[in-house]
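Long-time lurker, finally posting.

We've been working with Amidase (Neoroseomonas soli) and I want a structural starting point before designing mutants. I don't trust myself to interpret raw outputs, so I'm hoping someone here can both generate the structure tokens and explain anything notable. Sequence follows.
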Amino acid sequence: MSDLTNLSVTEAVDAFAKGEATAEAMVRASLARIDAHDGKVNSVIRLDRDAAIEAAAAQDKARAAGAKPGPLSGVPMMNKDMYYRAGKVSTCGSKIRKDFRPTVTATVLQKLDAAGAIDMGTLNMAEFAQNPTGHNGHFGDCHNPWDLAYCTGGSSSGSGAGVAARFFAAALGSDTGGSIRLPATICGVTGIKGTMTRVSRAGVMPLSFSMDNVGPLTRTARDAARIMTVISGKDPLDPTSAPEEVPDYEAALTGDIRGLSIAVPKEWFFDGADDVVVKGFEAALGVLKARGAKVDYVSCPSLHAVGTYVTVVSRVEAAAIHAQWMREHPGDYAIHLSGRLYAGYAIPGHYYVETLSRRGPLLRQFCKEAFAGHDIVATPTLRTRVPTLAETDIDASPDNWARHMVVSANTRPFNYLGIPTVSVPCGFDDRGLPMGLQLSARPFAEGRALQVADAYQRDTDWHARVPAL
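Top reply, 14 upvotes:
Generated this for you. Predicted structure of Amidase:
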């Protein structure tokens, strides 16, 4: 096979199962591409080179002896540096945890291991996952593979950039306000956050108790479906994880979306949107219409309250998690991060309680507004063109704050509402940077969002394009 780094997750598994490519060859191809190009992209924090080659060779030996491949066998993966693996340093992108070695392994990593994925190490990220652009002053900023001057989106910056650059087939990110979907759209890959509580968070550094989500960044919706089927489900180590049965998400990807109804909210998502983004979004809707879907523009006034409450929840919960470190090591935080945390301490407790008490009613109201008679909500993932690293560096200039925060304006509402949301690439803007289509479904209807995402990718090739580097 000519270039093993171009294989998607499902293609890599098939190639391994058929004997067309060995796991070791795929890992070595990934390592060679990282060696050649990550000096520019800066997506990697820790590269476990020897361990990955050893694990791959063991899989090849087992396969030769007749072992049945798993759903992710042979697939090179790296994950955001906040997923704990016992005995391995997990920095969480921070100075405070630069030498932290957990004694536990995250449930999702155990599930990936059992499915045959080969863990090659950990990835750059925004400090403590609290930045929508991916800047990191401790480990250096991650750079967009499509143009190194531009941001990657955050906080799963290394995950988005590394998948886009074909360093590995897939990566785990986390999503509290858009941190999977933003690097997915900005780097031109696919990303999904499931329903809140769908995937265990045991062994994962928290940011917000009630809004953190675990999920993959991949090249295709089919890859995302494969990984979500592996990692989802109830976990006794995470009492908040949902007991709902996990379907085979991949089985829902039939390409048939005839008769499905898509709602486009009139409020919020197009405020101050760039024309090129709106045109790209409308073109994406045209692809779905051609496949038989119906599209309606609907009014969702609940979004104005949602947009306010989501900030309160994330600020207060993050401030609570970091309270001791903020007392003991305030100088070890980046300026923008300590500023966000101090703001959390200034929010009155009754405001926080109000945001939690309104969450259920607002979810019901939004579902009534958007999903009454509709299967999917579609929006642009990012309402503006991709900004540069300089334009969104708020440590360098507080004047960049507004541009910095608008990056996550279209993703944050779905974290507060807790509903499953997928982002897929839907074109390039006038500067050659990717744009994204965001597809949301009712709670625990990840399969429906993935079904529409996959149908879109059957008629487009944005997800198959590779940055020149």
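Before you design anything, note these points.
The radius of gyration is 21 Å.
Residues 302-321 form the longest helix (20 residues).
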